[in-house]
Amino acid sequence: MKFFYSDTFNLNLPPGHRFxxxxxxxxxxxxxxxxxxDASALHASPLASDADLLRAHDEDYVRSIETGxxxxxxxxxxxxxxxxxxxxxxxxxxxxxILAARAALEDGLSGQMAGGTHHAHYDFGAGYCVYNDFAxxxxxxxxxxxxxxxxxxDLDVHQGDGNxxxxxxxxxxxxxxxxxxxxxPFRKVQSDLDVNLPDGIEDKAYLKALTExxxxxxxxxxxxxxxxxxxxxxxEDKLGRMALTHEGLMKRDMLVLSECKARGIPxxxxxxxxxxDPIDASVVAYANTYRVAKNIWGF
Length: 299
Known about the structure:
Number of domains: 1
Distance between the termini: 7 Å
Number of helices: 10
Largest sheet: 8 strands, parallel
Strand order of the largest sheet: 2-1-3-8-7-4-5-6
Number of strands: 8
Structural class: alpha/beta
CATH architecture: 3-Layer(aba) Sandwich
CATH topology: Arginase, Chain A
């Protein structure tokens, strides 16, 4: 099986920036040192092509990101200062999402140690998301006729408003979002199925809500699942406002991934969220998703 990373493009953030840009390299190092993934399974994410990006995004917006001519207020909405590092990192993450989706269709499972950029819309970015990896991967697989139906299971604590805005009008994509009702984004966009959860929700209630929501995904009969394994429902997360434990998140991953495996549905995983302080707790949660996946697929 193949897994992809794009942390070779440093985000080059200024000192004190609230986004924990080191977490991606920390995750890759953890998975290798703990023997969860063999180095031979890891591949650097390539830069996505213009054609790939334009499947989901406006040409003028893409050009402004690539050339650095984007308005400063638009970059503030994204949350990063513009740099060529940021532009290349975003493009590489999209390339990794596409290759991970293709690899999942070949091997049953794949993923990348980045992504989850579900707040990026057609012509603007937001919430640390420049381009939308779920939309680009889904639309590429559909355009290449590799699949006829794609489902997105988005379990980041924040609603995937960009996913919904770009994809909800399509009959060949189903978007499930399980998220905090009162959390960002405060103006949500309707997905195919939105499950609004209260602040402070704990493992048992969360897993019950997920168990009740997943049958809608299986009824859609997807050829591919894109899984947003966000770890910001973790109680230690500064932005999550939920109270899940590491054990609860692992049970969540087991529920999603084992059900996909039992139904023969390929899965491409993306990590999401992750703002614990210190960030180590988020990295542990990311790594646990891969541990669960390894337990199920045996890679």
